[in-house]
Amino acid sequence: MKALSVDHVNKYFYEPEKFQVLKDVSFEVDKGEFVAVVGKSGSGKSTLLYLLSTMDTDYEGQIIINDTLVTGLNQNKLSQFRNEHIGFVFQFHYLLPEFSVLDNVMLPALKLKKRSKDEIEQKALDLLNLLGIKGHEHKKASKISGGQQQRVAIARALINDPAIIMGDEPTGNLDSKNTKIVFDIFRELAKERGQTIIAVTHDDEFAANCDRIIEMADGKIIL
């Protein structure tokens, strides 16, 4: 099954002058595949991830995620689709520092309103346990280590059972020990839970251990 299909996508920037940043990009990602997107700065990889995340809708071509054509959907529908089908893990965890670890994980599910609060809390606790954060759930997010914060961010990304987790340099802020922990979590999620993961990374070792590498240069896929 396909988790994602990108068909002849072109993207232009218009400031300070017209510039084509993505050039006829097409590829597919299978359900449960762990894919790294690599390339030098300016290759178009972050722009591509931004389009895949449905945050940027100004492009030519088509993007299908989880059997839904997201190209052309209005902002309200895209916002709902994102919350339900896409989980995000960034270089910076973007946790709410004054909220507890548990509250941070629960927030996207409370917003979606598809489960009761008790069910959401239990799911959040199960995820924190899975990711090795058991015992920290009632601490403020600002009071745990950087590596733990990134694992909390992964739990938050998983709370709504997304079709795809999209990572933008998800280990870029971590030391080598925590990078390995986060990579191993992603690896296990793909293998054991069939979670589809697409991660933009500068880390060659991280990329080399993924199922597949998509390499970009000058707005095109070259590998």
Explain the overall architecture.
The protein has 223 residues and is of the alpha/beta class. The protein has a single domain, classed as 3-Layer(aba) Sandwich (Rossmann fold). It has helices spanning 45-52, 75-85, 101-112, 117-130, 146-158, 176-193, 204-208; strands at residues 2-13, 19-30, 34-38, 60-65, 68-69, 86-90, 164-168, 196-200, 212-217, 220-221. The strands form two sheets. It has a six-stranded mixed beta sheet. A hairpin with a 5-residue loop joins strand 1 (2-13) and strand 2. The protein is globular. The two termini are 22 Å apart.
Features:
single chain; 223 residues; alpha/beta; Rossmann fold; 6-stranded mixed sheet; 4-stranded antiparallel sheet; 10 strands; 36% helix; 27% strand; globular
Through-space gap between termini? 22 Å
The backbone outline, from C-alpha atoms, is globular
Structural class: alpha/beta
Unreliable sequence segments: none
CATH class: Alpha Beta
Outline the secondary-structure elements:
Elements: E1 2-13, E2 19-30, E3 34-38, H1 45-52, E4 60-65, E5 68-69, H2 75-85, E6 86-90, H3 101-112, H4 117-130, H5 146-158, E7 164-168, H6 176-193, E8 196-200, H7 204-208, E9 212-217, E10 220-221
Parallel strand pairs: 3-8, 3-9, 6-7, 7-8
Antiparallel strand pairs: 1-2, 1-4, 4-5, 9-10
Helix pairs in contact: 3-4, 3-5
Outline of the structure:
It contains 7 helices and 10 strands. The chain is α/β, with parallel strands linked by helices and about 220 residues long. About 40% of the residues are buried.
